[in-house]
Design goal:
Blueprint: E1 3-9, H1 16-21, E2 29-34, H2 41-45, E3 52-54, H3 61-70, E4 76-78, E5 84-85, H4 88-100, E6 107-116, E7 122-133, E8 140-141, E9 147-148, E10 154-163, H5 172-182, H6 189-201, H7 205-216, H8 223-239, H9 243-252, H10 261-273, H11 277-289, E11 300-301, H12 307-319, H13 323-336, H14 341-364
Parallel strand pairs: 1-2, 1-4, 2-3, 6-10
Antiparallel strand pairs: 4-7, 5-10, 6-7, 7-11, 8-9
Helix pairs in contact: 6-7, 7-8, 8-9, 10-11, 10-12, 11-12, 12-13, 13-14
Length: 365
Amino acid sequence: MKISLCMIVKNEEDPLERCLTSVSDIVDEIIIVNTGSSDRTKEIAEKFTKHVIDFEWVDDFAAARNFAFSHGTMDYIMWLDADDVLLPEERQKLVKLKQSLDPLVDAVSMEYHCDFDDYGNVTLSVRRTRIVKRLKNFQWCGAVHEDLFVDGYLYDSDIVVTHKRVSKTTDRNLKIYENRLSQGKAFTAQDVFHFARELHQHQIYERAIVFYLKYLEDENNSVENKIFTCNRLADCYYQIGDKDKEMAYTFKSFQYDTPRSEACCRLGYHFLEKNAFKNAVYWYKQALEVPLPESSWAIINQPSRTWLPHMQLGLCYYRLGLYDLSYQHNKMALSYRPQDINILHNLSVLEELLEQRQQLRNFLT
């Protein structure tokens, strides 16, 4: 199995060398398509490959990726973004995959750890197709948040690609979508989905709702994306103060599959705001106990199944006067977020309360 790594880049002088260093000795060919860099990106790329090709940017990521893929010459084509990296353990997995992959496989997916908190915990993970058989000529679609559509014999690997974000949020993607709308270009279902997410990210909640609802109208969309959309709709409605619709779309997500931890945390917070602490406890405990989705392609919100429900359970049990349980859950939250000043403060207060309670018991006995 020989691999062409095909990438598109623009002004990536900071992360590019780190990315290429993590994979250059494993792949067999590197194709770098430059879409208009004004910094040292090309110079850095040329340290790793002679195949650095310019491409005139046309506000279409799929067009750029398809152009990059067209220059690959090996059996398989792999893609990464410049701010992605393969950590040492994942490098070894890729080496093993090259040695053992069934030649009948048409496409290989990898887990993508795409967002992290300040303590290095993964906060968002998804699965994406990363390697495809060149002769299948699979194509990218979508001007923004492009998707690689594949079929045939697919293999879900255990390799993880880590995203090390270096750039700040911009309105670049939003502007591309707005321009396409103004030009009367048709939006696919995926365009609608990703445009809604861009609007949501930029806090344009009412308009995001319109496009999320439009996406839900299409019954052919995947179950995982429908669940994600319901949870995003719930957040939009929460942001604009419509609690009834927030709850309606939280529960609507249950129609598609078993409850997800993110929805359980939302319900827990709904009752917490009402000071209905026992109800809140129920839902936060559900967030910890619900199994991971069976689909490996589910979008996983990690905080909602780790430190967040523990921290909120700590608060609920504190308000219920159950200081032992509050302490236990704050300790669990701290295991995910060491040195978190809020959790450390909670523990300090609880330790004092528990000590006072123990002294009272000792006095009474």
